[in-house]
Amino acid sequence: MDINFDDIKKEFDALKAVKDIKEEACEIGCETAEDEESGFIETIQKYMLAPVRCGIYFSRLDIKVIGLMIDEDVQVRERKRMLRDILRSITSKEGFAAFIDAVDATAKQKIAVYDELAQNFPHSAKIFEGKKEAYEKFRKVLDKILQNFEEVEQA
Fold first, then answer.
1. Which residue stretches of 2-92 are H helix?
2. pLDDT digits (tens, 9 = 90+) for 63-122
3. What domain of life is recorded for the organism (predicted)?
4. Whole-angstrom Cα distance, residue 127 to residue 45?
């Protein structure tokens, strides 16, 4: 069996070109209204479950504690489902403000650890500053959601 590598390379290059075109089209057209179109639960999940977006890793235990801080006891399971259950239980602006306070308290504990590590290991301070900046961006997203929060009527 004779394999012609030139043909395989041409096919690979053609597939790669098609993929690059699709990615470019998405970069141009997909990013603009992404946050505004998704609901607040999806937006919070997108930030809170990705440490690269919010600067902090929220473990299952952290999410459980956040729920308990706002009097919502959630079952320990996948982080996304736990967070969704907590957010679905929030029906008032005050409840959402309490959620933000609980997230902020948990985040401040973790940021205190970042500050201690940055103090003990000065060369890593840049890394931790980036994480703190990412959390501040996430905090602004939460504040924006709070401003636009519409209360759910209790039946």
1. 5-29, 34-37, 40-48, 51-54, 60-69, 79-89
2. 999 999 999 999 999 999 999 999 999 989 999 999 999 999 999 999 999 999 999 999
3. Bacteria
4. 23
Parse the chain into domains and list their residue ranges: 1-32, 38-147
pTM (2 decimals)?
A: 0.71
Instruction: Please state the φ and ψ torsions of residue 131, each to the nearest 5 degrees.
Output: -70, -40
Q: What is the CA radius of gyration of the chain?
A: 21
Rounded to the nearest 5 percent, the helix, strand and coil shares of the chain are 75, 0, 25
Query: Per-residue pLDDT tens for 14-40?
Result: 777 766 665 555 544 444 444 444 588
Contact 35/43 with Cβ under 8 angstroms? yes
